[in-house]
Design a protein that fits this description.
With 186 residues, the chain is of the alpha+beta class. The chain contains six helices and nine strands. The protein has helices at 3-23, 40-49, 56-65, 112-118, 134-141, 154-159, and strands spanning 38-39, 71-73, 79-82, 103-108, 128-130, 147-152, 165-166, 172-174, 182-183. A three-stranded antiparallel β-sheet has the order 1-3-2. Strands 4-6-9 form a three-stranded antiparallel β-sheet. A three-stranded antiparallel β-sheet has the order 5-8-7, with no helix packed on it. Bound molecules: ligand HQG. Ligand HQG binds at residues 68, 70, 85, 107, 111, 114-115, 118, 120-121, 123-125, 129, 140, 144, 171.
Length: 186
């Protein structure tokens, strides 16, 4: 396989893993435990049954080379999970962490009316996702169109008792951002 073909295959596998490890484990007929882990060898077999050739070596590449570090193995590589982004109900068992004074959220203009009223909601996911810097938030927002970047007064939120988690791949997670903590420019 050429390098280019392998890169395409790695991306395809990564998308399938995002689906199965975050949203629809039934798509691969696998099960996630309470913390989102699944057995590595079962996953490899399931991907093979799905018609995609995968072994541990290639899976390690998928995990290591992922642009957003979406997946992680446990220490002995016997289990794998998504680092964040789940819609299925699991507990990542991350420790609450003090956020910086400000974090960022990338969205698009059509959601702004609703966001001004309700704040940021987790929608289909388990948490609201916040980015540590404007550039990352821009990338998140541009998935949906021209990005609008919101600055969130996360230091104040934390002082007011809101809990924050930091995923292994540096995404900040919280339950809800009330509109009062969003610094609207207009
Ligand atoms: C919006 C990707 C109306 C919110 C990214 C967003 C991220 C509201 C959308 C990760 C709203 C939800 C998460 C409200 C929030 N009214 N719209 N009150 N509150 N929204 O995909 O943050 O590539 O669930 O602004 O890079 O966009 O998958 O969340 O536009 O890290 O690894 O509702 O997903 O990572 O969309 O993205 P999402 P998100 P991956």
């Amino acid at each position: 396989m050429s390098t280019n073909e392998q890169q395409k295959m790695i991306k395809k596998i990564s998308k399938l893993l995002s689906l199965a490890l975050r949203h629809q484990p039934e798509a691969l007929n696998i099960e996630l435990d309470g913390q989102g882990w699944t057995d590595t060898s079962t996953l490899i077999l399931a991907v093979n049954k799905h018609g995609i050739s995968l072994d541990l070596e290639l899976l390690k590449k998928v995990v290591q080379e992922n642009d957003k570090q979406r997946f992680a193995f446990n220490k002995d590589h016997s289990c794998i999970r998504a680092n964040q982004g789940h819609s299925v109900n699991i507990d990542l068992q991350l420790n609450p962490t003090t956020p910086p004074e400000f974090l960022y959220h990338g969205t698009v203009a059509k959601f702004m009316g609703s966001i001004k009223e309700q704040g940021l909601l987790k929608m289909n996911r388990q948490h609201v996702h916040l980015s540590p810097d404007v550039e990352t938030a821009q990338n998140v927002g541009s998935r949906r169109g021209k990005p609008v970047i919101l600055t969130i007064a996360t230091g104040q939120m934390h002082q007011a008792g809101h809990e924050f988690l930091l995923s292994k791949n540096n995404v900040w997670l919280t339950d809800h951002v009330p509109a009062d903590y969003i610094l609207f420019k207009e």
